[in-house]
Structure formats: structure tokens, C-alpha cells
Amino acid sequence: MVRPDMSRHKEIWVYAEQTAGHLARVGLELLGKASELSDKLGAGLACVLVGYRGEKLASELLSYGVEKVYFVDDPKLEHYQNQAYAGVVADLVEEHRPEIFLFGATEMGEDLAPCIAAKVGTGLTAHCVDLRIEDCDGALILHQTVPGWGGGKRVDIICPRKRPQMATVKPGVFTVPRHKRNAGGKILRVTPQLHEKHFRARTVEVQKGQACERPVEEAEVVVAAGWGVNSLGSLDLVRELSDLLRGAVAGTRPLLDKGLITQDRMIGQSGKVVGPNLFISLGASGAMHFSTGFERAKFVLAVDQNPQAPIFQVADVGIIGDLREVLPCLIEEFRKLKKAM
Predict the structure, then answer these.
(1) Model pTM score
(2) Kind of pairing, strands 130-136 and 139-147?
(3) What are the beta bridge partners of residue 49?
(4) Which tens digits make up the pLDDT trace of 59-107?
(5) In CATH, which of 3.40.50.1220, 3.30.70.2190, 3.40.50.170, 1.10.3370.10 is domain 216-340?
(6) How far apart are alpha carbons 45 and 68 in whole angstroms?
(7) Is 137 left (phi over 0), alpha (psi -120 to 50) or beta?
């Protein structure tokens, strides 16, 4: 399938998700962390790219310091198909046996990664918030950190016997590395073995909707509402503060369940991970499953009426008080600052 490589050694793989000729940002974020892991493990760094006519994308991946890009190229793979993609990637894994294989926890990644893990007979840790190499009984093992069940702790999961060690990571957890000038590396074109049974569905048309609001991942200011905003009766004041700061409105799981925000606005382990310049938490207690969603925020301002709320342990500035009293004052003070600038 692939031109032979006489210098076969351990490799760390990143699945470079692409759609309609564009690389998903999460794949680039994973390259930064994978590079750190490869240095610690003494392993090579490679990407797997599946699609059609993706030569430019493969070359772009090399500019981030990737040593190899396994490029699976076929017209039938232009659009994502679970069985076809899982089959060809699993074949690659069986042939080259990477030490570690990382995926973005996107809709595609969460669908694809477990199928590949099942096909090659290994484990998979989902929604990791950290990855690191540590010694375990004399062997260097990938420690995959997830928030503990119940939200009060973090748990490390390892896969000491099976390979590859596989994990999915939410977009926004890691940062995109810088481009490297005159980066080397090579593109290894793969001719996949495809069967009709892999294509049980046929893509007739692809339509992309327009986002109504600024994506929370791109906002420099994020205003996140928790269950405590119920005292306000609506999100009007929350939106007013967000508009004033040219930010994006987000929220916690209870607000999603109540229909006040959409899935793409939820912050936390099962939602979005963001790293804005300013993160404002309003009426959220701050359980770990929520706070892991904004660990990279440069400054955190929190408001809650419970002085013992966990959110104050991670906030740079905390205000204890009723949102009905505090939020109008915050809006007024930010309005004064904006006029003075």
C-alpha cells in the first residue's frame, strides 16, 4: 500500500480531519501536543489524511513539523463514510503499528475513533483534557487525563498492553503550533482497498448553514451563564453584557437542557473548550466538568451568590452576590470603561 520505509520506528499519529478541502483546527492543535509527546518518547510524528485531491492539505501538514503524512487518496472518499474511513485507517494501523494515535473529539472524530479502536483491538479514552508521557513499571506510557466521574477530581487512564494508545481531545484544549520554515517530511500516498459494502449511503448534496452568532471558540470575550441566571427571568442582561464587550454568549448544561442555549454554546467537558482573553461566569457553581472548558482563559471573572462555590477557586476576580443586583452594576461599569477608552 505504501512505499517501504527502512527506518521503521515508533510513531505518534494524529488524524488530520478535513472537510471540503479544509483542515479542522483541532488536528493542528493536536500536532502541537503530539510533538511534545514524540520528543519525550523518542518517536516519529506522522499524520493520517483521508480524502480526495488533498495534496495541498498534506503539504500544509508538513509545514507544522510532521515527518510523514499518510495520504489516503480516492474519489470515493471525498465525503466522510464511517465504514470506508474506518476500514482504510485500520488497515494502516495494522500495517505500521503506531505507538499513539490521537483524534479530535468532533462529530467525525467521535464517530470514527471508536470504530478504528474496535477493529484493531485496542482501547480508547474519550474527551481528554491533558496528555503526557510517564514511566510506568519501566515503560514510557501515555497518561490520558479526563475529569473524574462526579466532577471533583481528575483521573489518569493508561493502556499498558495494547497498541496504539488512542485518545480523543476536544477542540480548544491545546494550541496550534507555529509554522516551521523549510520543514522537511514526506507525503506517502496510500491506495486504499475499498469495497462496495463500505458505502451503504450515498451523498446526494451537501449544504452548509450560516452561523447566526460568533462561534465561542473564536471570541476574545465569552460570557457564560449558569443555572443562577434563572433569577433574572431571561438572558437579556447576559446578552447585553456580551454585546457591550463584543463577546459571545455561552452557558452550562442546565441552560442547554432548558433550551436557553444551543449545543454549540455549551462550555465544558461535553461541550466547547475555549481560551478567550476574558471569560465571565455568571451564576455557575464551577464544577470541574464546566471549568475544564475555560482553563486556557487569560482572565476569569466570576459572579455567584454562594461564597463556597468552586468557581471562585479558579477565578481571578470573584464577586459574591445576587445577579439581579450585580449584573446591572457590571454592565454600567463596563459601559463607563468603554466610554473612557
Answers:
(1) 0.77
(2) antiparallel
(3) 71
(4) 889 988 899 999 998 888 888 888 899 999 999 999 999 999 999 998 8
(5) 3.40.50.1220
(6) 7
(7) left
